[in-house]
TrEMBL record:
SUPFAM superfamilies: SMI1/KNR4-like (SSF160631). This is Knr4/Smi1-like domain-containing protein.
Length: 184
C-alpha cells in the first residue's frame, strides 16, 4: 500500500468536508491556507526563547492550524486565537514544559497530549497517567506526523489495515507500535 502524500491528503479532506461545511456548518477539518507570516514565527520563537523545527514552521506557514482537527487530534481552538497564541496559552499552563524539557505541546485528543521536541523535531505523546520523561515517540518529525495522521484518517476504512499500519510505522519509525493502531 502506498501512503498518500500531502497534496493527496489535502484533496481527500477537501472532498470529504467541503460538502459538510455548507450543509452542516462543520469547519476545521481541511488544510486551509495559513494567515501566519514569517514575522509571526520569529515573534513566537522569541516568546518561547527557542527556535522551532523548520518542518513545523513550513506546515504552520502553509496551513491554518488555528481550527484544525484531524483524526480527533485538535491543534487549535476554533479560530478564537491564532495557532501560535494558542500554543503559548496551552504551554504556559503546563509548567513551561518547553523550557525545562524543550518540548512544546502542539495538539491534544482524548487521552493523548502531543509534544514537539524543540531540540530535534521529534513528535511524542503521553497520557495523563504518564510522566513527561516517559513520552512515547510517534514520529521523527512533524511532516511524518501530519502525513501519518492524514493517512490514518483517510485510509483507515480500507481493508488493508495491517498494510497501512506497517507503512505508517515504517514512515514514522515509531517506538510505540500501539499508538497508530489506536488512532485507526
Amino acid at each position: 500500500m502506498k501512503l498518500l502524500d500531502v497534496s493527496e491528503i489535502k484533496n481527500g479532506l477537501d472532498e470529504l468536508f467541503i460538502p459538510l461545511e455548507a450543509e452542516m456548518d462543520m469547519f476545521g477539518y481541511r488544510l486551509l491556507p495559513s494567515y501566519l507570516k514569517t514575522q509571526d514565527i520569529i515573534n513566537f520563537e522569541a516568546s518561547v526563547l527557542m527556535d522551532i523545527p523548520s518542518d513545523f514552521s513550513r506546515w504552520i506557514l502553509e496551513y491554518d492550524f488555528s481550527d484544525l482537527s484531524i483524526c480527533n487530534v485538535q491543534f487549535g481552538c476554533n479560530h478564537q486565537l491564532s495557532y501560535l497564541q494558542h500554543l503559548i496559552n496551552l504551554n504556559d499552563g503546563n509548567n513551561n514544559c518547553y523550557k525545562e524539557h524543550h518540548k512544546l505541546i502542539i495538539a491534544v485528543t482524548d487521552p493523548y497530549t502531543f509534544f514537539l521536541d524543540l531540540s530535534n523535531g521529534i513528535i511524542s505523546t503521553l497520557t495523563s497517567d504518564m510522566n513527561i520523561d516517559d513520552a512515547q515517540v510517534i514520529a521523527q518529525n512533524f511532516n511524518q506526523f501530519m502525513i501519518a495522521l492524514g493517512n490514518v484518517f483517510l485510509l483507515r476504512k480500507t481493508e488493508n489495515h495491517k498494510n497501512l499500519l506497517a507503512e505508517i510505522n515504517q514512515l514514522t519509525n515509531t517506538q510505540d507500535q500501539e499508538f497508530w493502531s489506536t488512532m485507526m
